[in-house]
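Structure, all two chains, one model.
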Amino acid sequence: MKTSILAAWAIAATAVALPAQADKLDDIIASGTLRCAVVLDFPPMGSRDAQNNPIGFDVDYCNDLAAALGVTAEVVETTFPERIPALMSGNVDVAVASTSDTLERARTVGFTIPYYSFENAVVANEKVEMSDWEGMKGKVVGATAGTYEAIWLEGKVKEWGEGEFRPYQNQADVFLALSQGQLDATVSTVEVAEANVKSGNFPGIKIVDKAPMVPDYVALITLREEYGLINYMNLFINQQVRTGRYAELYKKWVGEGEPADLTIKGVYR
Amino acid sequence: MFNYNFRWGQALNSLPQMLEGALVTMEIAILSMAVGIVVAIVLTVFRLSGRRLLAAVATTWVEIARNTPALFQIYMVHFGLGSFGIHLSPYLSLLIGITFNNAGYLAENFRGALKAIPDTQARAARSLGMSAGQAFGSVVMPQMLRISFLPMTNQMVWAILMTSLGAVVAMNTDLYGVTSELNARTFRTFEFFAMAAVIFYLITKVITLTARLLAARLFRY
């Protein structure tokens, strides 16, 4: 008798205690703000203008997503390594931060379909004899720590068994080291390589070759269990391409030419 | 709200790699302390020498080492010297940067310790026929090292924690470097950094305890 009363109480208490299940998508719409983590030392995807306002492809992408949701966008600057803590601690809702969708990372966070794709170039110091990407073998090479190209390049150096790999903290330090001759070569996205050669901020560097990597597809990320939000963002990315906004943003931030094809031939998703 | 499920498996599997990194961290800290102590003694002698130029060199060193961030010092060793065509590996840049910092702080510790040793001791040693060098080397300096022993262990702990700044000069074999690379690959940020923090804590604990035991043995009256 006593136990059954207790059990009844327990069931009633659980029913009251369980909150109505609102997921992150609901929370964003209810709060009226979409908070995006964006990396702002990664032009042309993210940087700051002369008035210190965030600008770039990723910034616009965040604004578009917010507009689609009918909320205001809030750009939260993070570095590449800070993206995940920012998500996990609830400081941001999504990261629009050129995040490469590796399978190893997908064990931890939730990826959408790709929204952009990078090709990578080998950039070398002018004083170094190098005619193609294999010339990096045995040299001192480096890249921005934690990026897709850094992971690839370090793997190559290990495979070659000679030379040295150095991960610098940001893109600017990589090119400073390259310009000073501390690095013989680096691998970076074609966009960044061309911008840096053109700007003249880093004298004495040259683009050597394309890096023979699988294209670096990048996706939006959020918490792994937020299927509602991931579904919404997948459709959003599809619509960005469908409506021509993707091509428009490419032209605005990267330049003339065709933006990368985001579909993979012969397979769904 | 903190919304995260800890999964320790991957991090625990990488423990051997992180411990290897911890060895490199300890190696750098120990080397930087050993060289730092020698340099600090030289700087102290410079200051005592009464020669204006030498004293100025020592004072400048101490002022820069104590009044600028260690991060800046390490960065300058790598990129500052690099702009003059002097290229040091990440390992050497970090080691030299920390040694520079250690030497500055230790020289200041030694100066404080010297103030606690009465002048009369050096004079008594001289009156026994010792040279100035002998008086410093065999009477004043041992006491100086004894008095500043605990501040020195403090600096040693600081040296260990400073190795994490090697990231700015592309150091990737020390404990912090290994950890941040594992993090970039797997995105298991909290697990990896929590483990790194525990390892750092254990290293510094072991060092302070060892130092205390050593002090008890070395400095018995």
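Chain B touches chain A at residues 1-4, 7, 10, 78-79, 82-83, 85, 87, 89-90, 167-170, 172, 177, 180-181, 183-190 (CB under 8 Å).
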